[in-house]
């Protein structure tokens, strides 16, 4: 749609951000033909782009301006001063267009935490219908179930008619997907239950957001926007950067009347008759609100923005999952990504296999994962509760204003629960180099000779929290991002114990026989780690600081909490101090959840659409119109 056509109309709802959540909300609101919706997206339309559709081509998107915001953090003291690159989707569909396609599930306690913190209607049982509503689960075909080990899933807990397709890679699975579940069972883990049961302890191949028939990425633009693109009440403008929400200050809360945006250097305005819905994700949503004059007065004034609504929660509470990697040599008969990259002929064959037949290594994204409780990470830990509590208490004394909602006590309690995960473990058939943290596209390959695999211990619910704030009134200037990686001593402690546990799998079959060893029988580890493999807790803490990067799951910067607890939005997703501005995306997570977050973003967007419609209950039998 042209700018002139887009601005020639007024809309009931203007959605700022055509990403994972924004397109869900747009599709659901426009099911009512009497409701008009305008969506403003900063990126372009990538539908039918090979690099997006190819399930295992996502690393080719990172750092490219037509797909990626390519954000950078400030230097992180907790990771030996490194600046981290954050790939975030700047394309229709947002980060659902560029993520790893891995599909996890929040635990029961993760979501019950949200309700306990004061968010009515956001507990695990409240959200389960929305998980089923957005998905269609495709079980393995005959003969494939044993190969990828899908027997732990309970089809009764899964959606059957939603827009997003989820499945296993099937015939395209790699040696990692065969070796990993067997190794976990031999390590003494019990067979896993479906994570939808509320707990995910164990190791397995998890689902992917991939259409199994077409072998292409199943994401928000493909499944929520494309079938409904011709609706007369849905308008989309791409390559348009939101510069501010227009606010009318009244005696009570401020009212949004429209949205200002920039296209080709020119500023335009579109009117919103009912609501403005901010769906920019954990970086862009607080940025848009602050540019509009909603936020902390000191931050806004420093950036040269007039204060319209004081809201201290905007941009605070940034929380991310970290990934600490072990990069281990594997025998040549177990091919990894290095085999593709070092041989242009093989790379070309792999691309042709996907383009012509939707087959080969680019058709199958990673799936091998696991979730370990503290009792699994360290079976003998008699003073665990006292130890954890002492670290939480000491931090609270040093930073007395850091946790007004009391979240750290909730999270500390959760770490002690044997049904809850202290870490997620991810196994990838590629090497890695953490010194390339600044450039995400260069992390997952090893420059060293031979084949390599990466096994990462990833945090599930970090206590370290940072911020995202504007530093300029210019919307094209990226905000300042400080995730405060490993600032809380409990995060360092838990990740150190987790990496020692993860390393123990190297001595368990069948993984043990896959790995290369030196003449003395020691595992070959990549030199890029900058230190030897750890054997003690102190060595592991040092190793964590040198080998940790983002897992690309930032949340929390418009936290859904009571205002007196530091919240930015209410449990109806409405921005405090406004009458008709909502935020619907991962920035509202009040606390983090385990695993890959895209599933919860879809679920909360479905719930958000129902809240806007004023619906009390969800109907899980209907997909989006057009399916």
TrEMBL record:
Residue ranges constituting the Glucose-methanol-choline oxidoreductase N-terminal domain according to the UniProt record: 89-112, 281-295
Keywords: FAD, Flavoprotein
Cofactor section: FAD
Gene3D superfamilies from the UniProt entry: FAD/NAD(P)-binding domain, Glucose Oxidase, domain 3
Annotated Pfam families: GMC_oxred_C, GMC_oxred_N
ATP-binding as UniProt keyword: no
Any one GO molecular-function label of the UniProt entry: flavin adenine dinucleotide binding
Residue sites binding FAD per the record: 91, 242
Keyword Flavoprotein included in the entry's annotation: yes
InterPro entries registered for this protein in UniProt: FAD/NAD-bd_sf, GMC_OxRdtase, GMC_OxRdtase_N, GMC_OxRtase_C
Family label: Belongs to the GMC oxidoreductase family.
Protein name listed in UniProt: Alcohol oxidase
Lineage: Eukaryota, Fungi, Dikarya, Ascomycota, Pezizomycotina
């Amino acid at each position: 749609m042209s700018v002139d056509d887009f601005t020639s109309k007024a809309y009931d709802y203007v959605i700022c951000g055509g990403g994972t959540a924004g397109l869900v909300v747009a599709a659901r609101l426009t099911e009512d033909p009497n409701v008009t919706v305008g969506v403003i997206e900063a990126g372009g339309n990538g539908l039918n782009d090979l690099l997006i559709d190819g399930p295992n081509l996502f690393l080719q998107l990172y750092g490219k301006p037509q797909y990626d915001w390519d954000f950078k953090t400030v230097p992180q003291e907790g990771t030996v001063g490194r600046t981290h690159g954050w790939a975030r989707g700047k394309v229709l569909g947002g980060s659902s267009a560029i993520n790893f396609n891995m599909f996890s599930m929040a635990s029961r306690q993760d979501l019950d935490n949200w309700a306990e913190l004061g968010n009515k209607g956001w507990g695990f049982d409240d959200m389960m219908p929305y998980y089923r509503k957005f998905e269609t689960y495709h079980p393995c075909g005959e003969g494939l179930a044993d190969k990828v080990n899908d027997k732990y899933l309970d089809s009764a807990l899964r959606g059957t008619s939603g827009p997003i397709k989820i499945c296993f890679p099937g015939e395209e699975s790699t040696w990692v997907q065969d070796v990993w579940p067997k190794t976990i069972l031999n390590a003494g883990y019990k067979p896993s239950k479906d994570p939808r049961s509320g707990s995910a302890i164990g190791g397995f191949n998890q689902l992917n957001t991939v259409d199994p028939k077409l072998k292409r990425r199943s994401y928000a633009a493909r499944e929520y926007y494309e079938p409904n693109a011709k609706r007369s009440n849905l308008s989309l403008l791409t390559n348009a950067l939101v510069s501010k929400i227009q606010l009318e200050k009244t005696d009570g809360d401020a009212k949004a009347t429209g949205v200002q945006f920039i296209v080709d250097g020119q500023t335009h305005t579109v009117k919103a008759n009912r609501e403005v819905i901010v769906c920019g994700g954990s970086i862009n949503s607080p940025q848009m609100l602050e540019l509009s004059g909603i936020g902390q007065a000191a931050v806004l004034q420093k950036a040269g923005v007039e204060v319209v609504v004081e809201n201290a929660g905007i941009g605070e509470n940034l929380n991310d999952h970290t990934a600490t990697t072990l990069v281990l040599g594997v025998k040549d008969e177990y091919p990894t990504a290095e085999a593709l990259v070092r041989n242009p002929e093989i790379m070309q064959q792999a691309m042709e296999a996907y383009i012509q037949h939707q087959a080969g290594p680019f058709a199958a994204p990673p799936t091998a994962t696991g979730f370990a409780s503290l009792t699994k990470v360290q079976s003998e830990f008699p003073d665990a509760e006292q130890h954890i509590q002492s670290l939480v208490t000491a931090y609270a004394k040093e930073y007395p204003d850091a946790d007004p909602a009391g979240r750290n006590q909730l999270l500390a309690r959760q770490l002690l629960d044997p049904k809850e995960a202290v870490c997620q473990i991810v196994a990838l058939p590629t090497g890695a180099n953490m010194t390339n943290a600044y450039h995400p596209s260069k992390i997952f390959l090893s420059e060293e000779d031979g084949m390599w695999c990466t096994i990462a211990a990833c945090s599930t619910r970090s206590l370290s929290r940072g911020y995202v704030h504007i530093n300029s009134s210019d919307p094209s200037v990226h905000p300042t991002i400080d995730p405060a990686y490993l600032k809380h001593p409990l995060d360092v402690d838990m990740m150190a114990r987790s990496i020692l546990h993860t390393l123990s799998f190297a001595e368990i079959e069948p993984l043990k026989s896959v790995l290369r060893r030196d003449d003395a029988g020691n595992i070959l580890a990549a030199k890029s780690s900058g230190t030897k493999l750890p054997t003690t807790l102190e060595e592991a803490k040092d190793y964590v600081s040198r080998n940790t990067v983002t897992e690309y799951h930032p949340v929390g910067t418009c936290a859904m909490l009571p205002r007196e607890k530091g919240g930015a939005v209410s449990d109806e997703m409405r921005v405090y101090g406004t009458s008709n501005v909502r935020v619907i995306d991962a920035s509202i997570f009040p606390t983090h959840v385990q695993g890959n977050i895209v599933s919860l973003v879809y679920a909360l967007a479905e719930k958000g659409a129902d809240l806007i419609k004023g619906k009390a209950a969800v109907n899980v039998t209907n997909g989006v119109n057009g399916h």
